[in-house]
Amino acid sequence: MPQTETETQAPGVAPPLLEIKNLTVALPDEAERPFAVEKVRYTLNPDEILCVVGESGSGKSVTAHAIMGLLPKPDLRIAAGRILYRGQNIVAMSEAEQRALRGHRIAMIFQEPMTALNPLMRVGDQIEEALIIHTDLDRKARKARVVEMLDAVGLPSPETLRKSYPFRLSGGQRQRVMIAMALALKPDILIADEPTTALDVTTQKQILDLIKTIQREHKMAVLFITHDFGVVAEIADRVAVMRHGRVVELGPAQEVLTAPKAEYTRALIDSLPHGRPTDATVARGGPALLAAEGVTKVYRSGGTRVSKRTELVVSDNIYLTIHPGETVGLVGESGSGKSTLARAIVGLLKPDGGRILFQGTDLLSLDRAGFRPFRRHVQMVFQDPYASLNPRHKVAEIIAQGPIAFGTPRAEALARARELLGVVGLDASAGGRYPHEFSGGQRQRISIARALAMEPQLLIADEPVSALDASVQAQVLDLLADIKAKLNLAMLFITHDLRVAAQICDTVGVMQHGRIVEYGAATEVFGHPTDPYTRALLDAIPGQAWHASHPPSGGPPS
Amino acid sequence: MTRDFLLAFARNKGAVIGLAIVAVIILMAVFADVLYPQDPWDMVGLPFAPPMTDGMLMGSDMLGRDIAAGIVHGARVSLLIGLTSTLAAVFIGVLIGAIAGYYGGWLGDLLMRFTELFQTIPNFVLVVVIVAIFTPSLTSIVTAIALVSWAPLARLVRGEVLSLRSREFVQAAVTCGQSNGTIIVKQILPNCLSPIIVSASLMVATAILLESSLSFLGLGDPNAMSWGFMVGSARTVLRQAWWMSFFPGVAILVTVLGLNLIGEGLNDAFNPRLRRKRTA
Amino acid sequence: MPPMLQFLLSRLVKAVLVLGVVVILNFLLIHAAPGDPATVMAGEAGAADQAFVDQLRTQFGLDQPLYVQLGTYVGHIVQGDLGFSFRQQRPVADLLLERLPATVVLTLSAFVLALVGGVALGLLAALNVGKWADSAITVVALLSYATPIYWVGLMLVLVFSVNLGWLPAFGYETIGAGYSGVEKLADIGSHMFLPVVTLGLFYMAVYTRMMRASALEVASMDFVKTARAKGQTEWNIVTRHVLRNAILPILTVAGIQAGQLIGGSILVESVFAWPGLGRLTFDAVLQRDYQVLLGVFFVTSVLVIAFNILTDLLYVLIDPRVEITT
């Protein structure tokens, strides 16, 4: 390869394994900015984990895809710069030369384990495919290696699992299969693109531990892309912080995490949920605003071509109370039943048993008409700001739709909607525009305004910040806390993120398999957890040691 | 949003061609009596006159009728039957699809079994049977075509409504106390308008093909000159007079092509996201 | 293999249900038609003699309440009695059975041609998206999709039989040629060529367009990126990962559209004088022989169900996720 240059190195110093030099990737003409990444440079050394961290749109993934030659053609192309693998420029290589590196010397795993595997191929065959491409191993040797790899990533009974199709495996198991596939050829470099973002916190911990262990064992270089500083603190040796397609800070993990130099890094770290329980204690005396007793719901799904008939019990005998002005958090992993309970309270689904008492009236015993007046008192803020606003209605109409349905004159409701936009920190003129003109955080504010328009006594927030970037997350949480205090609202806050729950809730219930396994004051639950599952959850929060040693300046000094 | 949509549509060459074709066909149908004032069934020249002879652009048929006059007047029947049967089918399809999708449960199941059944049975055979038994007329043809065309749309609408129903903005409308009717009409249907419009434009094309096939078999409205009838009656003299079946066939082809191009253009303009690939 | 058996059994139950509804539909059509049900069953008014009409009236108990009549009608169908064609002076079931093989041969060949051709062309277009091959395939598919099927048949006859004289225009075999063995097969093949192409072309266009869209969608999926990240070659990515996943939706639609394919064969058969159900239908339409028409509707429904089971089986073979038990 005459066209690849070898960089001159100081004598005696081994060249870095991977060097990104002034990499610029151009976006298509109609995009908002000309480059996805601009003049990015960083290096990756053997036996280290480099975390590239940034918010959505920072270009952190694009760089990784460029290394793998996986940029979506023809939209993205490398406009300038070099990517040197052991001194050889990947950008200048032929397609065949790049292919020889891919999956062999440089391997990659992705964010979505549910879609990253071919649904029609046995997982063993998918791992074996990499061996067929890059080695001369015979059938038997390949099979042996597949089993060995499945075993190495901690999957149970690899002999039988190898013959399974992906749909039989859980998300965590699939991500392990992906890792086994990536490591099958013992690559020098593993690129991990947000590999734990789609996973539950306890599974995330297991996968992070696995990657760390394998990295240490094989002295591999890992390029780990994430948006979560907790994850960075957990595994990074060095960190590159990216924003708007540029690297704004690069340095050893310890330095970046504890003494960030760049303004942006500092702001990002400060916006993290600090995870300390609120100091204010709410008097839980007096009659409860809402009490849920023995709520059960059995899910029957299936009958379609793909899924088979399954029964799932959630909300198995839940008991919980919410007092005026109190914020109760429901914490749990996906499928724990926390959203089911929320939906039952606002009447979006009908539980199979139990009682939900609102100021003493059992909501579940009411028919449609009887339930209607209570809709005003209980309002909900949804998870996905991009799905929760009707794209064909103007913002003011969206906010006013509830009051109008309850008979408020249209003009009056629309005027009130504009006022409410001010309350949630938006300009009143926003009312005349359509949702697609707003960012995720702004949409969530609109969603909150819609709930407030009904003047509710209880606000149910179902993962209201989990779809947002960290910096926006903090703003929306502040807004919720502010409104709650001003209006003396009671709130049921549903989240998978314990750090967020600790920060905003007075009382916390931890849910697992449809049961509340622990319930009490937030300070108690987080400070002195008694249930083993709560302890496991708390233990799985990434970057705890760092959180503890480094109180972000955003929170009150303790 | 509308301006973006129009721009996207106008940028699509095929869609603009399709629109031009259909516009010409519509003009032909509207001004048929101006272009060819005499009855298309009248004998106006020698039989078996080839194109460009005897003052007839496309020649004449076995009975000396002007082929060009037949094509211009035939546009009326094609468009009339295409549009009315599609309107009827859209009405049935949206109604059944929306109810099945929104309410679900046993009612939804029942409606979908019913829909599936109508999709499985050989629909052209059913159309032939119905029209033959009820004797061919505009009404029986439109009814029969509508009856076999609504099912795919009902399935489509049901799917859309089902996915929209679980969308958070619809749930928000529920928690805000909007009634089911309001939610279906104001929240859900406007959001599945684009697939309905796209399939409706394709359904008009299919209906025109169906009508022409019926006429070809001799099951057209006996009082209306139609393209399919012209092809069908000329097939026995194919060897001697190719133009008699060629030109009406081209008329059908061009019309259906135009409608399909419009449908595709609408689809692309409604779904700009499909054309762009996701980037991280 | 018991799960497969169970699957087939459930399909058969569904098939019986569909046929039941078809029979009821036929019954309702007879009664909804203008005029006396007996004359409808006999054929065009005045064509059959009074004795035959009277015989029908007693045979189907047409003076009984409607539900009794339905029972009688269903009873006849279950026994394989699809009525009697006064015009042809033969039982309808005999007429249908005689014509069925020719239609099955024609539709099955056209179905295979359309499926194989459509999948291949659609994939080719998707792989060359934006290039001339894609544009050419797209334009041809668009045209074929817009052309009336009977007209394509006529034009093919005009070009290949009338002008070039390469292929026979009519019938199933050369009458009186007395071929046997290979010669006979070749003769039938040459007769089949144009009808199969005519019928297959339209559906090939349908499947080509769908396959193109489906392959493009699959090609943008994550697992294709995974395969690329493994260092797999583009050819192997297409054959090992894209193809199988992209075919699934085509099979689903092919199953649903089998009814349309069989409906189309009526037109094609009447153009090429192919001695199948379509030709029978055409004659029955001319003669207003309703018993035969209703019989055709029933038999083609059976055929559609057979096609559906066929595509379902193909689907099960390809997709491991299908739970055969439901």
Automatic annotation (TrEMBL), chain A:
Segments forming domain ABC transporter: 18-269, 290-538
Membrane topology: Peripheral membrane protein
InterPro entries the record matches: AAA+_ATPase, ABC_Ni/Peptide_Import, ABC_transporter-like_ATP-bd, ABC_transporter-like_CS, Oligopep_ABC_C, P-loop_NTPase
Locations listed in the record: Cell inner membrane
Gene Ontology terms for molecular function: ATP binding; ATP hydrolysis activity
UniProt KW keywords: ATP-binding, Cell membrane, Membrane, Nucleotide-binding, Transport
GO biological process: peptide transport; transmembrane transport
GO CC terms in record: plasma membrane
Family: Belongs to the ABC transporter superfamily.
Protein's UniProt name: ABC transporter ATP-binding protein
Source organism: Roseospira marina
From TrEMBL, chain B:
Record's keyword terms, sorted: Cell membrane, Membrane, Peptide transport, Protein transport, Transmembrane, Transmembrane helix, Transport
Domain of life: Bacteria
Domain ABC transmembrane type-1 stretches: 75-263
CDD domains assigned: TM_PBP2 (cd06261)
Regions crossing the membrane: 15-36, 79-104, 124-148, 196-220, 240-263
Annotated localization: Cell membrane
GO cellular component, one term: plasma membrane
Entries under Pfam families matching the protein: BPD_transp_1 (PF00528), OppC_N (PF12911)
UniProt record, GO biological process: peptide transport; protein transport; transmembrane transport
Gene3D superfamilies: MetI-like
Topological relation to the membrane, as annotated: Multi-pass membrane protein
SUPFAM superfamilies: MetI-like (SSF161098)
PANTHER family in the cross-refs: D,D-DIPEPTIDE TRANSPORT SYSTEM PERMEASE PROTEIN DDPC-RELATED, OLIGOPEPTIDE TRANSPORT SYSTEM PERMEASE PROTEIN APPC
Family: Belongs to the binding-protein-dependent transport system permease family.
Identification of the protein by name: ABC transporter permease
Naturally occurring in which organism (per UniProt): Roseospira marina
Lineage of the species this protein comes from: Bacteria, Pseudomonadati, Pseudomonadota, Alphaproteobacteria, Rhodospirillales
